[in-house]
Write a structure and sequence with these properties.
The complex is a heterodimer of chains A (about 280) and B (about 120). By secondary structure, chain A is mostly helical. Helices cover about 80% and strands about 0% of the residues of chain A. In chain A, α1 runs parallel beside α2, α2 packs antiparallel against α4 and α4 runs antiparallel to α5. The two termini of chain A are about 45 Å apart. Chain B has about 120 residues and is α+β, with helices and mostly antiparallel strands. Chain B has a three-stranded antiparallel β-sheet with strand order 1-3-2. In chain B, α1 packs across α2. Chain B starts with 14 loop residues before the first helix and ends in an 8-residue tail after the last helix. Chain B contains four helices and three strands. Helix content of chain B is about 50%, strand content about 15%. The chains are: A mainly alpha (about 280), B alpha+beta (about 120). The interface between A and B is medium-sized, with 25 and 24 residues.
Amino acid sequence: MIPPTQMKWIARSEQVYAMLLALYPAPFRNEYGHSMRQLFRDQCHGAYSSGGSIGLAGWWASTLFDLIETVLIERRKLEFSMWQSRLVQWAGWLFIFGGIFFAVSSISQLQPGSHYTFTGIYQLAIYALVPGMTFIALGLLGILLRFNVQINLFGRLSLFTALIGAVVMAFSWLLTLLGNDSYRIFLIGWLIHIAGHSVFGGFATVTHLLPRWNFALLIGSALPLTLVILSFSRQQESLGTDWGAFLMLLLIGVGWMWTGLTLQNRTTSSVQLMTTG
Amino acid sequence: MATTIPPEGKLPLTPAVFHILLALTDGEKHGYGIMQEVLRLTDGEMKMGPGTLYGSIKRMLEAGLIEESEERPDPQLDDERRRYYRITAFGERTARAEARRMATLLNAVQTKRLMGGTT
């Protein structure tokens, strides 16, 4: 039997613990705060019954340690989850911006003369590939999070491949522009990206993944089309306006913008984070 | 749903999650009941605070390892409504897979004679 004076201490302990629960993120506190308080009270009684005041003090020490540790964990998880949620909601806009930058980069291929170096407006246009690929990589991460549960392993793998390719492209192109010759890595990244993108585009079309215009993803990727255009542009070598490369970059840009519009058409309220699994 | 994922994809489990699953294998329990069962199973070695317990419960619910059963009063403790949790079929498969993984590990430990010897 716990004496009334000690019962008072236990009640005060519970009040202090209830105040400390405010440190947890609101969603977690609202869901589990009451149960945690209840558990704390039960354990306070248990600790006092088995160890008296010293037992209660020991319980408080371990609870404080647990509280600090788990507050940090829950806050970090909440921030991560919010970041994921934003990425899912903004995926459409990221593709639109990425597509615009891609379309702008196509202007570089209109430069007369050699394409080993770009100058003036054409140089600015070729720089646009870096933010373009970065936006698209982030957008791909967004749809990977958004459709994680709906797509099977095959779809996930192709999407992941496209994402990795996009990241390699963005970094290697940035390095190339900064003076390090990473053009071959860029081309490997391009191939990886376009392969993953094409397969995922086909998958999305067959499985009706997008709210509408399921073929939108294919427009920007279309591996056969890209290869045809590439082979066409290769015949012109690096001299003069490269209409093949121009068309290819423009098509990819339009494809991404279309995909972005398709995703953004769906109201953000209906977007659900599908990361559990 | 999470239950379509092979249980091996969830391994290794954290000690807290594995102990909670173990505590729930013989029936549904509320938070304090889980904690008492874990203490009993580990001879008082595994002490979880409320934050660790409910943080783990939250993630286990999201992963489909456990589910919440209907709230009901526990007359043995008090008349407050408590939340009860029970293990799911996926949770059971995951716990078994983790037990197998640990048994393999223990076997390796015994092969290396790390237990019972002096250093």
